Amino acid sequence: MAVGSRKLWAVLAAAVLFFPACGAFGEGPQEAESNDNEIQVGLPTGKTSFANSDIAVAQEKGFFKEAGLTVKTTNFRSGVSVVQGVAGGNLDVGASSFEPVANAHARGGDVKIIGSYTDLLAVAAVTPKDVTKPADLRGKNVGVQEVGAFREIMTRIVLESGGLTQRDVNYVPVDSQSYISSLLQGKIESAILQTEQALSAQTEDKNLHVLENLNKITPNYHYGTYFVSPSWLENNRKNAVKFLTAITKAHRFMYENKEETVPIVAKSTGFDEKTISAAYDVMLEQQGVFPVNDGLDDKRMRQTIEKLRKMGVLTGPEIKVSELVDKGPIGDAVRDLGPWDGDKRWR
User: Do both 84 and 199 map to the same domain?
Assistant: First the structure.
């Protein structure tokens, strides 16, 4: 293992993140209120990403209001914290990458996936241009937030593609909002960045480039989820359908209305419209990362579970997709709206 990695590995592996950061739409965590039409949503990044901007679009275009819902969001430092909030009853709906939700379920946690924000990966490994292939990362400083969290798992997948393991690099702890600055300052030589972050970093430093697009390395990985507790779903199934109806409307609106979508996403993410416009072209035009139907493919989720088990990220009893996921609410939403077809991007 690279110098210093063993100690850092132990520290990071023991880290549990309990403290959310105030976000663009919420005012911090609080007990979910009894208002029948109010939904408290937790987002998995300290600052809203493009991948989670469907919430902002649904708010701005009035889709939640149309459904009779008041949706309040809080930004957290990681999906782990969001899972804790949902399981603990402080949040009604959580947004997170797949792995912390699956892990919580495997350990008996009170969580159930009901939908997706971006079910396809929308992140890339960004490095200096002298790192021309994953194998070149050997001995380099690699930025991660916590072991077992999404970006660290994506880092391992990149390393594996070059015949390396995490023991061949030096993990450097980086706050979720500091990846770009750490790259620019030379503190780290690789980071997993959201599409808009990757574009912004390359604009600021022409010596940076996308080493690998994770969607190309592992195209069958299921990325983002919306999830709830089974008890909340039992008592609020109609609101779950309304919420997912508004989200699906937002996804469809985004594909059809770039000019209106870009300023909304720019405002929610804090990136300039030029960067968001370029990110839109990658995420929606080229990759089609936002699902317009249910976005919950059983085969891909099973493959993701198998991948996480092989990596040692997912432990505990065998997970059945049918027990982890309830497709009922999103199925009702899509039936009401009518399914979209005729384009290879539509899922």
Answer: no
